[in-house]
Amino acid sequence: MLSRKFYIQVIIRILIILTTCIGFVPFLKSDERLFTVISLIILVIIQIYVLLKYINRFNTEVADFFSALKTNDASFAFHDKIFPYISEKVRNDISYIRNQLFSITELKEIQQSYFKSVIENAQTAIITIGEKGRIDVINKSALELLNINRISNIKALENIHPNFYQILLNELAGVEKSIMIKGKTKAIPLSIRISEFKQKQNKFKLVSFQNIQSELEEKEIESWHKLIRVLTHEINNTISPITSLSGSLEKLYKKESNATISKEDISNQIIEKTYEGLHIISQRGEGLMEFVNNYRSISSLKKMNFVKFKIAELFYNIELLMKEKLNEKNIKLTNDIKPIDLELNADKNYIEQIFINLLKNSIDAIQSNTGLITLKAFQNEKEKLILEISDNGIGISDDIIDQIFIPFFTTKEQGSGIGLSLAQQIMRLHGGSISVQSVPEEKTTFTLTF
Hints:
This protein is an alpha+beta fold. The protein has helices at 4-23, 34-70, 88-121, 140-146, 162-170, 213-252, 268-299, 311-328, 348-365, 419-429; strands at 125-129, 135-138, 176-182, 187-199, 202-211, 307-310, 332-337, 343-346, 372-379, 385-391, 433-439, 443-449. The longest helix has 40 residues, at 213-252. It has 4 domains: 4-103, no CATH class; 122-211, PAS domain (Beta-Lactamase, 2-Layer Sandwich); 216-299; 307-449, Heat Shock Protein 90 (2-Layer Sandwich), CATH 3.30.565.10.
């Protein structure tokens, strides 16, 4: 490890000390040379001190170097006066380690600067939350959306944005929420996503959120277009035959000269045709009124009445209500609830209505003698409550599966097309969602996520 020059220096200093020690031996028995002896002893002590200092200086430099390694201080280097006393191999190794340390530190600083710039300039608002609600990172987009200049703890949001504060405080990782917060001039819709990560022994929440006003507006416009198409289609289907039939009835009461016929010209045949025509017009009018009432049932849902109830009770009530229809088609209904005492906080009447509609659809879809419908309830890995209804009916084809939740869309001759739309609206009011997966002729599953 040490160079030859270092060893030579140490040996020379030791030899000088030995020579000095040997030099004052002849004076030990002579009282007249006492001063000389004391001087020589002091000289030896000084020489030993200088030797130890020389050795210790090297040790100190080495200790400082390794201390710099521990603290990632790449700026530390050995003095040129010390390097010559270290072997060339060790000098090269130390230089390599120092350069590597410098490169790692430089790369770390570049990465930190890069990620800081990315986070700061990201369009998505980002907040990282440490222990006791401490905010470690908050970017410019987050400050602008929350309409604040600076913040160090989420506690400061309690009075400004209480609903947002409660989500940051209580929600677990994996949560996705949509809420409204106060903006400068109007309420702002936010989409929030929460995840967690660890650094050493510390846990952090990573909260990302963004303004979804434009997305909601696009969805709203798209929904209006769909609704207008449906309304136009239904109204045309009703008005067209009424207009045509009215024209035909009008012709019955006119002569070839377009003059109105007299009372004497009204025959039993004209009266009969008039009655039939008016009856059809009445039926079409009632159909249009029913359509309007169906639309109102979707667009004007009552306020939710949340209560906590057991899923087992919900499934039992539904089975009792639908027992007769199930027996008519010899369909077996099973349920699987884990744990059996699983509870749901929701509007019980509306959730029952969803399951009744879904169960009716499943019964209609089963055409075999081995019909099976399964009701399931469990919590997934994200601790969300999942309710499922599955059947082995004809299923839903790929070309229409994306349309089944559109209001008034139906494949049934006597269907109104509002059941699934209503279910979707109810789930949205619960802060949840409804989805479907289907393999035709094998299995179709509707999933309610709370």
